Amino acid sequence: MKIIADLCIVPMGVGPSVSGYIREVRDIIDASGLSHHMHANGTNIEGEMAAVTACIEACCARLHDMGVERIFCTMSFSTRNDKAQTMADKLASLA
Asked: What is the spatial distance between Cα 16 and Cα 62, in angstroms, rounded to a whole number?
């Protein structure tokens, strides 16, 4: 099942700056081959649900490997079965 997800990963207990951890998350998402777009408060990711959730699991595993004891994640996603639609399609429909 194809999804368009909005993901926010917050490493907890690591101090006020999390940019080093988010760079690691970005690198994992980049390497996944999934279509994605990082924004100020998270990342939009599109692909098969299993691939997206496997990518998120890899991100959390990497942060734990880096010593982060607690991670707070939120993800919302949409699906549709009447037609194929990408993130770019959704934005283009606003023009």
From this structure: 19
- Which residues make beta-bridge pairs with 74? 8
Task: Report d(CA 53, CA 73) in Å as an integer.
Answer: 12
Enter the pTM of the model: 0.92
The first and second tokens of residue 56, run together, are: 């998120």
In the sheet with 2-12, reading across from the earlier edge strand, the strands are: 35-39, 42-48, 2-12, 70-78
Per-residue three-class SS string for the chain = CEEEEEEEEEEECCCCCCHHHHHHHHHHHHHHCCEEEEECCEEEEEEEHHHHHHHHHHHHHHHHHCCCCEEEEEEEEECCCCCCCCHHHHHHCCC
* Amino acid sitting at position 91: L
Mean pLDDT by 10 residues, the chain (95 residues): 97 96 97 97 97 98 98 96 91 90
